[in-house]
Design a protein that fits this description.
Blueprint lengths: L6 H30 L8 H4 L3 H27 L10 H32 L3 H8 L2 H4 L3 H29 L7 H32 L9 H12 L8 H26 L6
Length: about 270
Amino acid sequence: MSTKLNELENATVGMTVGVIEVLCLQPLNYAKNMAQQGQPLTMDPRKLYRGVGANCVNMGSCTMIQFATGGALKKSITGGGPNARPLKAYEEMGCGIIAGVLSATVGSPLELIMIQQQRKGGNTMDTIKSIANPANIGRGFIGAAVREGLWTCGYLSIPPIVRSNLMTSFPDTFDTQAKARVPAALLGGLFACYLTHPFDTVKTCMQGDIERKTYKGFLDTAKAVHGESGIPGFYRGATFRYGRMVIAVGMMDFLQTMIGPLLYPAKFA
């Protein structure tokens, strides 16, 4: 999210970045979701890409909201424009968290559709019809909101902070953005994954069991997961998620710096 772009432009960049990320990394998302629910894994591409349409809409719209909201918040803090002051670290992180929580209002129902397709197969319209009631639409929202807030902070806020600190503190080693981007992505992905994964596991279990046979509300689900596997149960699928997140954080950090100037070159001249 750039202070050089307006909200619509930031939203367009965010949507583009989100869709590219999903198309590249959907198999890791599928593997993570199945592992969290104790379901068997597969290498069948038809199953690996189940729910990819809903996930493209999910990531495209969520990233769009995150970029637009985060950009607007940053502008309101710094004043925007060429004379805008640098953001403090806590301001950068706060913008990411608020933008992420807001995006969960859209992302949580779309993930419900994707997870139901991954569990049961079927097309998107039939899945929507099967879950279309108020008791299901908001299922897993608390977990999604916490996860998205910290995840957005992890990929939009942590990498710029780490890159800036590395280039300032170790200018001989990290003399370009590209060199500083790798450790920034590793740290951003680590933060985003392991801090948020327990919330994501509870959310995924709830959304995979809309019949509520095993998992009821948020706290009941957390107790059930702990009862099944203890603390490690909250980190089922974390390896797949961390792998995806490190790639995604680096990819999205790179794409947002590339696609903005590509779509709106006059704003970066």
